[in-house]
Write a structure and sequence with these properties.
With 245 residues, this protein is an alpha/beta fold. It has helices at residues 16-25, 43-47, 74-79, 90-95, 100-112, 125-129, 133-153, 174-190, 209-214, 230-243, and strands at residues 4-9, 32-37, 54-57, 84-87, 116-121, 157-160, 197-201, 220-223. Strands 1-2-3-4-5-6-7-8 form an eight-stranded parallel barrel, surrounded by four helices. It is globular and about 45 Å long. The chain binds phosphoenolpyruvate.
């Protein structure tokens, strides 16, 4: 039985002192894979502790090396001990102009360096209200598939993150999340990638994690705000242990 995966996304938060306290209060647990995706400057700090917690970054360059000022390559992330990198987070798509094709190229860059991309997909509220969830999520997934191919895709992780649920305190209901996860799973199975883990992200908290993680097809969570509070994050991780695979 595969373990659930719980990934903290610290976003643009942290300082050496604050991270020290947070990292000192989180840790690996039997029965769940725990990861933290931290800002680039803190990767080395997070790599040195805590043991058993996988390291990840929040974005990556599509380029490997060269005249790309300010960029950070997947190879550099691997060099620093990263296992994961988030690609296509809705904040990157909305605020930094990352389109579907670029997300595909970033996923490919991650895979090339041996990292596991956590590919974020999800619809806006307007898209949901227009009944376009499947179309939007399908388009985002197809774009990644077109660049990386089915075989490489099978080495990734998908995170379904409805945009309207991120940072709003309004998580998707279990039924809403489960329905989209089922569609993503059908799509993955069609690509011969049925074993890919599909996480849910969007206002997961200690008090709603149990219901979400118990739903069939939800393999864990991508956690934003609650990953900055050690007790809340560890409580979500314990919930993942309790809900099994
Ligand atoms: C996220 O940023 O990926 C996220 C899910 O944020 P939050 O948990 O704060 O909604």
């Amino acid at each position: 039985m595969a373990q659930k995966l719980v990934v903290g996304n610290w976003k643009l938060n942290g300082s050496l002192a604050a991270n020290e306290a947070l990292l000192g209060a989180i840790g690996a647990l039997d029965g769940v894979e725990v990861a933290v995706c931290v800002p680039f400057p803190y990767l080395a700090q997070a790599a040195s502790r805590p043991r058993g917690v996988a390291l990840g970054a929040q974005t990556v360059s599509e380029f490997q090396s060269g005249a790309y000022t300010g960029e950070v390559s997947a190879e550099m992330l691997a060099d620093l001990g990263c296992r994961y990198v988030i690609v296509g987070h809705s904040e990157r798509r909305a605020l930094f102009g990352e389109d579907d094709a670029m997300v595909g190229r970033k996923a490919a860059a991650a895979l090339r360096a041996g990292l596991t991309p956590i590919v974020c997909v999800g619809e806006s509220l307007a898209e949901r209200e227009a009944g376009r969830v499947l179309e939007v999520v399908g388009r985002q997934l197809d774009a990644v598939l077109a660049v990386v191919g089915a075989q490489a895709l099978a080495r990734g992780v998908i995170a379904y993150e409805p945009v309207w649920a991120i940072g709003t305190g309004r998580a998707a209901s279990v039924d809403e999340a489960q329905a989209v996860h089922a569609d993503i799973r059908r799509w993955l199975a069609g690509q011969g990638a049925a074993t890919v883990r599909v996480l849910y992200g969007g206002s997961v908290k200690a008090d709603n994690a149990a219901a979400l993680f118990a739903a069939p097809g939800i393999d864990g969570g991508l956690i934003g705000g609650a990953s900055l509070v050690a007790n809340d994050f560890m409580s979500i991780c314990r919930t993942a242990v309790a809900s099994g695979a």
